[in-house]
Every structure is written in C-alpha cells, then in structure tokens.
Design a protein that fits this description.
By secondary structure, this protein is α/β, with parallel strands linked by helices. Helix content is 37%, strand content 29%. The protein folds into 3 domains: 41 residues; 157 residues, Glycerol-3-phosphate (1)-acyltransferase (3-Layer(aba) Sandwich), CATH 3.40.1130; 87 residues. The mean pLDDT is 86.
Length: 297
Amino acid sequence: MSGVVLIWLGLGLNAVLASLKFHWLVCQIVLIVFFGLWSISNLDRSRFLRNFFFTLVEIFFKNFDVAGKARIPLEGGVIFACAPHANQFVDGLVVMRAVSPRDIGFLVAAKTMRRKYVGAMARALGGISVERAQDIARIGKGKIHELKDNTLTGVGTEFTRDVRPRDTIVIYKSKADGSRSNVVVAKLRVTIVNNDTKLEVKTFSDMNVEEINASQHFKVFPHIDQSEVFRNVCDKLAKGHAVGIFPEGGSHDRTSLLPLKAGVSIMALSATCQSGNPITVIPVGINYFKGTYVSFI
C-alpha cells in the first residue's frame, strides 16, 4: 500500500473516530498504527541497521580511530581487504563504521546467512553469501589404512558415497586412546575415486607418509564451485560499489595472520576486465586496544 494512502487513511480514521466520540487515546492509537505501517513500508532497512550498529560501536569503544581514511575513493569499485579477523561479527561492523560514508557489503559465510535473524540483517546490509568447505565438512566413515605413492586405501570406508573428485581428504592425528585429535597431519586432493576403499590423490613432497599411515581418522571437505560468488562480487564492483573481504577466510585468535586467499586479486582483476575500469584494493588493518578500535587504511 502506498505510503501516502496509509497516512491519509490513518488521518481519516482518526477524524471519523473522534467525530463518533471515541476516547482520544483510541483515536491516537489508530493514527500511530497507520503511521507505524507507513514508517515500515518506507524505511531504508540498510541505512537504519547501519546507523543502529554504528551507534552501538561508538558506545562500546571509548575511542574510535581511523588512520588513512583520506585514501578511500568516494566513487568506483573498491575492495577492502581486512585483517586480522578476530571476531566474526564485530570486525565487519567496525570496518563499515571506519569506511563510512562508503556503503560496504561483506562476503559472509553461508552458514551465517542461513541463521534466521542474523542472516536477514546480513542480507539487508548487502552481504554476499559464500559457502565454505569447513562449514559443510563431514567425518569420513571407516579408517585410513595406507598411503602408497598416489593411492590412498581405507578400511570400512565408503569412498564412492562420501567422496567426489576434487574433494579434499583431511587426515587427523590420532590420540593415545585412538580417538581423533584436532591436529592435521595432511590434506590430500582427490583425483579419482576407484572404489569404496581406494582413492587416487594428489600428494606433496613434504608430507610425512609414516605419520599419515599412523593416523586413521579423516574428514571430507567437499569441493565448492564459487563461480556464482565471484560473479556476484564482480557485478557489484563493476557497478561502482564497495565489497569487504577477510582474505584469511575465517576468524581466529592468533597473533599472526593466517595464509591469505587469492580471491581478492582474482575478483579485482575479473571486475576490472568486466567493467573496463580499474578496481581499487585497499588493505585495512584492524586492531583493538583496551576499549579502543584502530583501523589503518
């Protein structure tokens, strides 16, 4: 319903009810209801959420310092590559506040986007969903028996059901009691699935085969086609919008950076070719010091 119609309908009902001698409070409640409906139908959810979260950020951090903000171009496609990624939610909010007035949409894990309320807010803020293999990895059935040359054999496994070519087999070190630890022994890219107990994999020269053979637990990280994600990002950049990316691929509490992914460069080059205009890549350093947020751009 048109916002003007809602306002006039509310005013009309207010006047009619008043003329019929209804209590003034009832008349005002009716008017407020229609005014509320008008506000919701005309509310810019993205701007409302940004201002709301920016207010929270300003309250939470005693000082909010941004160095190098003058380097941010006001127009054209921009990729903000942000690190280190210490907090899944706070980092994105503080970077959005730091680069304001540029509206920035972040790449957001599909696992987060599937959450009812958080996902709705992420979409309203221009988030782009990206599926991550670690979020849909599954524990492999059976045990790893042996890696010989490029052939990986298992016992009690169902490779034809659980594994596909280009998936990654991650082998974990076993604990003293035989259970699986979180220590990764090796990551093997599957090339051919021969049968339920045999795979052909891509091996690397620096792997410890004896350690692999002694570790029997594994997970399957499925290969994910990210072409749609790249297409969405390139379209957004080509239209002159800003995109935020955490190139480490996930949040962590380490003092050093995780290995950076190559997606930032690929997206920038692809969007440049698509639009014919250069895409600016701006590194953003995120630091928190006892209630103070500092960003170096």
